[in-house]
Amino acid sequence: MRDSSSSESLTFMKMHGLGNDFVILDSRGRDAVVTEALARGLGDRHRGVGFDQLAEIRSSDSADIDLDFWNSDGSRAGACGNATRCVAQYMMDQLGQDSLTIRTTRGLLHAERAEGGLVAVNMGHPQLGWAEVPLARDVDTLHLPLAGDPVAVGMGNPHCVFFVDSAESVDVAGLGPRFEKDPLFPEATNVEFAEVRNEGEIRMRVWERGTGITLACGSGACATAVAAHRRGLTGRTVRMEVDGGWLMLDWREDGVWMTGPTAHVFDATLSRAFLEAL
Ligand SMILES: N[C@@H](CCC[C@H](N)C(=O)O)C(=O)O
């Protein structure tokens, strides 16, 4: 999907990782095209294309690519694990490489092909201090002063992880937006509900900041694995079942690795009329 822009139209890819779905624009070799209005317009599942996140690939002078993310409400996201894996798959195929370096606002990330056609990405070291998450004030990130005793973890974006007896019975649509905008999180937060099945397996459901319920959240899966290990509930390696399938998480010396599938659904072109109406 190169040569993706002209004054009249804009081509894009639709990909997903476990049903966490993305519109991806390849803007290498040209000026960035994404604005808040474009993200919101494209993110509309009725009048646009629909996505959980929009990712824009840019030329990089310090990595294979630079990568920026937006949520469907037009807000910026500092990290998106599943979109990073999808873009890595696309770029590794296109460049004929087995690994890729990606510069995001989170820092330099490393992705590589994994067994069985899966893609792994090192999402970096978790941010465990209150100011890094970020939180509004100095509190213990392992026991937030909120109902339900959640854990806060930053993965380049904020996460609030609740441990529950049954993930299936949680009212994610009701509780998610309530905690997303809690004043303890000055930049709002993603909200995860995790049921630890055993020390190597977690069931997790998620409410994403700026998007709502999604079938998977890669950075949320990383944050949940970190929170569970910090609480002494699991080892450093876990299998995680999300609504869209399974992810593997491994909190290593060099960061939190996440491995899972990606899918390229279609390529298409936005009409000039759509772009002009934004
Ligand atoms: N789906 C993502 C996370 C997307 C960003 C999030 N909604 C935010 O605003 O931080 C993932 O796979 O990590």
Automatic annotation (TrEMBL):
GO cellular component terms listed in the entry, alphabetical order: cytosol
Protein name: Diaminopimelate epimerase
Gene name as annotated: dapF
Enzyme class: isomerase
Organism: Pseudoruegeria aquimaris
Reactions accelerated catalytically: (2S,6S)-2,6-diaminopimelate = meso-2,6-diaminopimelate
InterPro entries, alphabetized: DAP_epimerase_AS, DAP_epimerase_DapF
SUPFAM superfamilies: Diaminopimelate epimerase-like
Site (Could be important to modulate the pK values of the two catalytic cysteine residues): H159, E208
Biological process according to GO: lysine biosynthetic process via diaminopimelate
Function: Catalyzes the stereoinversion of LL-2,6-diaminopimelate (L,L-DAP) to meso-diaminopimelate (meso-DAP), a precursor of L-lysine and an essential component of the bacterial peptidoglycan.
Active site positions: C80, C80 (proton donor), C217 (proton acceptor)
Protein location: Cytoplasm
Principal place of residence: cytoplasm
GO molecular function: diaminopimelate epimerase activity
